[in-house]
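Researcher: We're teaching a course module on how sequence relates to structure. For the next exercise, students receive a sequence and then see the predicted structure as C-alpha cells, so they can try to spot secondary structure elements on their own. Here is the exercise chain.
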Amino acid sequence: MKLTRFSPSSLGRVTDFDDWFRNPFTAFPSLGQFFGSLPEFISAGGTGRLLADIHEDKDNYFAQFEVPGVKKEDVKIELNNQLLTVTVEKKEKTAEGEQSSTLTRSVSVPDGVKADAITARLEHGVLSVTLPKAEHRKPKTIEIA
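Model: And here is the predicted structure for the students to work with:
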C-alpha cells in the first residue's frame, strides 16, 4: 500500500455547495442582460454607485470619488444637514439616441466643518472634495506651566 501526503490545495474546490456559499448570486443574470450595456463608471466598480475614499488629517476632511469620463458640468455637490451628496449625470450617445445615467453618493460629515471654505476639483476621473475643519475641531496643543 502506498501512502500519500494530504494537502488541502490538492483537493481544489471541495464542492459546488462551498462555492455557492462564497458567491451566492453568481448564477443569476447580470443587470446588463436586462438593461443593455451599463455605463462604464457603473460597471467598472460593479457596485452601481460611486466609489469613495474618505480620510482626514489634523486640518481637513477629504472625500474622493471615482467618476471616470465625466465632465465637471455633469457633477453636482451639495452639503445639507451634515450630509455631503455628490450627484453625477453621464450622457452617452448611442445608436438609439442619447442615454443618460445618474449616480448619487451621500457621505455623513461630522460637525465643525467650515461650509463656506469647502473646495472641490476634478482631475483624471477623480473628484476630490476638501472640507476644512473649524478651529474648535482642530487638535490643540496645551503648554504645561
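Model: If you want an answer key for the exercise: Residues 31-47 have pLDDT under 50 and may be disordered. Residues 38-137 form a domain with the Immunoglobulin-like fold (CATH 2.60.40.790).
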